[in-house]
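Q: How would the structure tokens look for this protein?
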Amino acid sequence: MVGLIDGPVAVNHAGLAANIREIHGSIKSPSNQTDNVACLHGTFVAGILCANRSSPAPAICPNCTLLVRPVFSDLKARDVQMPSARPQELAAAIVECVNAGARVINLSLALEQQFARSERELGGALDHAAKRNVVVVAAAGNRGAVGSSAITRHPWVIPVVSYDLRGTPMDHSNFGGSIGRRGLGAPGANVTSLGADGEPLTLSGTSVAAPFVTGAIALLSSEFPTASPPKIKFAITQGYATKRTSVVPPLLNAWAAYQFMLTAQASR
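A: Here is the predicted structure in token form.
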């Protein structure tokens, strides 16, 4: 089960293949989803994870169960590349997804204004995910800055930056010590997925890159169902990498992580 904490998803979209469950929390789905930017973003990310293989979306893990928990219902068009959520709402959503049985959670979002109290609340929710061995994948952000947020500096989170088709980190991505040590890069340039109105949509950014890592973790967990989530997390982030000293994380190599898991299973 993959937890998608994002905007609402057009669950009746003909291109979506997964078994989709919804947790509404305090966020209500818009009545007109096809014109809603939040729903556009949520459906786009959902498409990368679990669209039909015959659709325009990459459809990384179409047979996984998708648990959708919206944390924003209304966005401006300029926010579609990287929407933001209130820390308190995000903390509640993380706890709800963990308690509902998610194995991995995708956060393709940024945080609205942060305060010490809200950061502590969010940190507690991420600690809860860590204690329950629920892996959290988060977009690193699109400000082109060096630094971290309350999400990306948490030791359990896998921050994701965007790479272009040449395998080069993109300038708009945020980088930093915690991102370089624990994060990954993934495709984030002109990725095509599902639009809420039924037409394909093309977007770029770290918000787009994060579900590639989430989907790879979901596939590894499906292929190795007896493996512990920390083992899967190690395989995808560290199992094939050399010692990290840069603020820029290495590019996702799902095949190498799969080979690492095969070797680890054979040696048991």
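Residues 2-266 form a domain with the Rossmann fold fold (CATH 3.40.50.200).

The CA atoms of residues 40 and 159 lie 23 Å apart.

Upvote if useful.
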